[in-house]
Amino acid sequence: SQITNTCQTHHIPEQHLTPLSNYFIMPLLMFYSSASGISTGIVFMRALVYGKIGNSYVDIIKAMVRILFPLSIISSIVFVSFGTPNTFTTSISYETIEKVKETLLLGPVASFEAIKLIGENGLSCFNANSAHPFESPSYLSNFFQVFCILLIPTALLIVLGIYLKNIKQSITIISVLYIVLIFEILLISFFELKGNTGINNIIEMNAPNWIGKETRFGIAGSSIFTALVSNVSGSANSSFDAFNPIAIALALFNLSNQSFFGVQGFGLVFTINFIIY
Length: 277
Fold this sequence. Notes:
two-stranded antiparallel ribbon
């Protein structure tokens, strides 16, 4: 799944993977997957402008060395500053106040999060994904994750303008995509803050829809993340099926067209195709 840039997951990392596989093998595949996506976008732009595809292997190596590695290192440091653990200690055991012994899983989570979000991979080191407190400890880390997800897709559209020698074209495309994205965020946030009308009538309260959401992110933080990741990444900080039907409909719409940014490189190709045809 990672090698083909599909980014589907059918496993529970805490149960089905060893620490070595989870924190070293999977990130290696994520780097390759992301680099191949960037290479696809660059090859498409090069063919569109110059009529040649160039060497995709060189593009993949450059994408790793010049883009993904440096950005991941910087992002890892930022995540650590937000409270995300980053250690080679795989777990610690402790005893609760009820005298129950439990094991808390650890690892280089901040480093994993960096390539997961910069590379727009849906794979996560914990089954709860970005809803896990180690992956996203605070409201601020949640928005930094949003920034990381949007960084490379936005940059690739600017690169398109550089290839075309027309930055205004890039600005126009980016503006349209962000307008659609903001519209989706506002729409999802509105219905989530409004809550479930049927339940509200029964309890005789105007309560927002908190089901499936982390209180540390709030409804706005969860709605923004949901609108974004259905466009770009496979990450999640809340339960999608707990959202209102309009949010699920928008998510399916985004996943079906992959043109509102989309997975890096491939999303650019889809966007250009929609513009041309």
